[in-house]
Amino acid sequence: MDYLPDCNNRYKDVEYWNDRYKTEESFEWFGDFSKFRHLLVQYIKKEDRILILGCGNSALSVDMYQAGHTHITNMDYSSVCVENMAQRHADCTGMSWVCMDARHLAFPDSSFDVVMEKGTLDAMLVEERDPWNVSEASSHLLHQVLTEISRVLKPGGRFVSLTFAQPHFRKRLYACTEYDWSINHYHYGDGFHYYFYVLTKGEKLSPEDTALERKVHLQADPEPTAVTFQEVENEDFINNINL
């Protein structure tokens, strides 16, 4: 089956994902667990309580489970995805699957040591064309999601974000004093680099990131910037976002 939608904004449509997950077994955005495990083990302990945001049908949580990270809650807004994955991995004791909206997480404050996302925020930004000028609607959406992530993290907890968005684009969205976290980033992959961001709750932004936050708030809207995208994966929307 061809899973490419007729237009990229359908990547924001839950019905598209429900239909896709009825037949698609698995798909990995930005490489499998083996590609970034060396980074992940530095920031995620086996005893941590972990929330995977927009889990999809990725093998990430199962790979982590088999590596000893057994306290994992998988969340997605596709009910088909959640039902299928829960049935498929019913033998993974301690791992759960829930259908939920990332803008309104139904968890108490300070519920998790780690929140992870792998391509979920990129899908939310699929309609954006200029990485220097994210639309007001998308900025509001991301703010809702990031506020919820910060809320459910414990003090000292980590938000781990995997994306191909380069730091000069993605840090503009993450550098916010309100979220109460610091930002570190790494890259992985051969040839084409993906990025591994770690945001630690309760740590201050660096002076550089504080200045970036101030600049984003104060700067006038610049002219649209032409951006060249590298062709990666086999999904059209990957080539249309670099945020």
Topology:
Layout: H1 14-21, H2 33-43, E1 50-53, H3 60-66, E2 72-76, H4 79-88, E3 96-99, E4 112-118, H5 120-124, H6 136-152, E5 153-163, H7 167-174, E6 181-188, E7 194-201, H8 207-218
Parallel strand pairs: 1-2, 1-4, 2-3, 4-5
Antiparallel strand pairs: 5-7, 6-7
Helix pairs in contact: 1-4
What can you tell me about this protein's structure?
The chain is of the alpha/beta class. It has one domain: Vaccinia Virus protein VP39 (Rossmann fold, 3-Layer(aba) Sandwich), CATH 3.40.50.150. The protein is 32% helix and 19% strand. The chain is built from eight helices and seven strands; from the N terminus they run H-H-E-H-E-H-E-E-H-H-E-H-E-E-H. It has helices at residues 14-21, 33-43, 60-66, 79-88, 120-124, 136-152, 167-174, 207-218, and strands at residues 50-53, 72-76, 96-99, 112-118, 153-163, 181-188, 194-201. Strands 3-2-1-4-5-7-6 form a seven-stranded mixed beta sheet, with helices on both faces. Helix 1 (14-21) packs parallel to helix 4 (79-88). Residues 227-232 and 236-243 have low confidence and may be disordered.
